[in-house]
Each structure stands twice: as structure tokens, then as C-alpha cells.
Amino acid sequence: MATEACDYKLAQDIAASCENPIVQGLKNTGYLINYDDIDWDNVEKDAKNDLIVTSLPLLTGTRAYKVYVPGKTPFTGTQSEMTEGTYMNKFTKTASIVVLDSGPDVAKNVINNLANGKFVFIFENKYQGADKKNTFEIYGLEQGLSASEMTNEKYSEDTDGGWAVSLQEANAPSSGMFLFTESITATRTLLESLATAA
Amino acid sequence: MDEYEKILNIIEEMRSRFDSGFSSSDKSTIIRLYYQICGKQVRNTGCNDCYRDAYIETRATLKRLGQMPKASNYVLKNGVLFHPQGTSEFYVNGTITDEVAETELAKNPEFISKFSKYPTDYQERVKARAAGNAFDEEDSVAALKKKVALLKGQLAEKEAQITAKDATIATMDAEIAALKSASSMPTETQPVTEAKNAKEEEAQEASSETDAAKVVTPKARKTATKK
Using one digit for the tens of pLDDT, what is the confidence trace for B174-191? Predict the structure, then answer.
């Protein structure tokens, strides 16, 4: 095995776009996918930038599930932060979602599975970037997201008795991964296809 | 009642609620039919106009097709978008046609890994498509054009046959008319014929008398000589 030294050097100026300033926050709809439902052998990435996923096929009979969170600041708490490592620094990504529903079906089909499963979460940034490639970001594509905190506070003013769920991906090598193929329209079509009933 | 009429009836029945707002059951139906007929998903399920748009598109598509769209034999995996080079078309899930799938598979056999559903004999189908003998020949545009040309040729041939038959019929009609007129002649011409016949008989009799007169027996000749 050849010895390889990773070359971590800046490759672009750090600047702020005056024409297209960054905008904070996320849109109201995201997509959750069971980690094991992804057809990993056929996931494709951009040839020039491997942090852009161009094809995210799911195994036959599986689908992504839409997550709709109303309000002006949906998915509050969703963030990515660096974690210092012994040899390499990694990133911890947290996806915060609320389940504004409760009951036996939600407990069986959603909450219990969120508590024990591994997931990939795709969400839509309000800031699309000049080339729109920043629009859809993916958490959990490397290590998978798993539940780190789940609360069902009956008198919560935030969730009105629903569930607040934090899913976390620890030790992810990449600071950010994005979903983009061809154009933003094509990417949206691809996302819709992910959520098609199998 | 076939499926097309059944679906069209469901759509027409929902029309009365187009302005007032669709019920939740209507919305589920629209989601299902929109995907089944147009191969698309309702973008935003929280928006009433999105359902109206999907309803209009579904109804228009169904009426334009005049039949239920034929389901493709190939279904792409969820999360795969296929964009054939040199076109502006995108295909996801079941929107890909057999023709597009098989054409691409002929160029890139590994493309089969992108499908969640495909015929077991897809390799034969791909070969047949490449050779111009697609299994679903009746569905391809080129095949339909060929079929139209063939039907036009057959139509022209039949029309020529009809014209020839018409001409034959006209000839036969004329002959029948002639025969009819011929068969109706005796009633008018009978007296003339009878007169003619009588004349002929008289002429024959006269002739036979003359002949008889001309015949001279030997006895008579002797008598005449003695005189």
C-alpha cells in the first residue's frame, strides 16, 4: 500500500458575496432516509467535488420520508461543529426535528424507530449559493445519524406536547455534503422521486 | 366499463369541488392519479392550488391520451434521475419509457443497476431494440409512424378495390338494365313478329307451290309431247 500524505491547503479565497449574500435558516420540508435503505454501491458523486452527491439511489421497495415542520424557524438546533480528534479533526452534525403528533401509530412507526435506527437527513438551506449547489445539504451520509435526545414534554410551549428529536452524526470526516445534479430543477425532481411510495 | 372511463368518471365527479376545495379523500385520489397518469408527485401537499394544478394536469393528460397510460416495464430506483445526453428530458421512477431505457442499456449495460424493476428478458429486449425489432414495437414513435404509413397504404389499397368494385357494379347494373329491357320487348314486338312469321310462312308456301309446279313427272312430259 502506497504511503499517502493528505495535502490540506486552502484552495480558494474566503469572501462574502455582495450580490448574493448568505441567508440564515432552513426551509420547512426535509427528508429522512433509513441509512440501510440507501443503495450505497450506486451512490454517485461529482467528479470534481466529491462532497456533491449527484445520485442517491434507494434499494428496491424503499423510500425517503418527508419531514414537515411548520413555523418561521423550522429545524432549530440543526448544526455542524468540529470535534477535535487524536489524528484528524471530525465534525459532529446535529439534525433537530419536531414531531408535532403523538399516539400509537406515531410511537410505533416513527418515534421508536427514530430512537434506535440510523438515518440520513436532507434539508433545504434558504441560502442556495450563486450556482444553487448549496440548496440541499445532507447530514448522516458518512456515519449515519442516530438519536441523541428525544423529549416529549406535555406542557412544552414549543412542541405543544409533541416530540423534540435530536439526531446526531459523530465523527463525520466532511464538514458538509450536498445533493445536486444537473440543475436545481432536476435536483428537486430527484428529491421527489426519493419520496415516491415504493 | 374500462379503467379509462372509470378514472375519467372519478375525475369528472371531483370537478364540482374544484372551486370549493377538495376533500382529504379527493386529495389522496389526486396524489395517486397524478402519479399514475402524469408520473409526477404533488409538490406541496399543504397548498390547495397545488392540488388544483395537479387535478387540471391529470384531467388534461388523460383526455389527451384517450386511454390509460401504459406502465413502463422499467422503473428507476428512487433517488435516480436519468438525463439522456443531448436531450432536455429527465426521467425518474416509472416515467422512463421502455424505448429510452433499452436505448440507454444498449449503450451502457451497467445502467441496469439503476432500475428497481425491469423485465427478466431485458437483455433480449435490448438486443431486439438495437436491431429495430423492439418487443413493444407498437409503442415506439418510429413504430407508430411505420404503422400509420402501413395503414394509409392499406386504406389506399382498399379504396382502389372499392372503386374497382363500384365500376364492376356499375357495369353489371347496366347489363342488368339492358337484359331487363330486352326481356320486356316481346309484349310490344309480338304482332310484328307474328306478321313477319306469317309472311315467311306464306312465302314458303308460295315457293313450295312454285317448286311443285316446276317438278314435271315423266308421265306428264309424255302427255305434253303427245299433245
Answer: 999 999 888 876 555 555
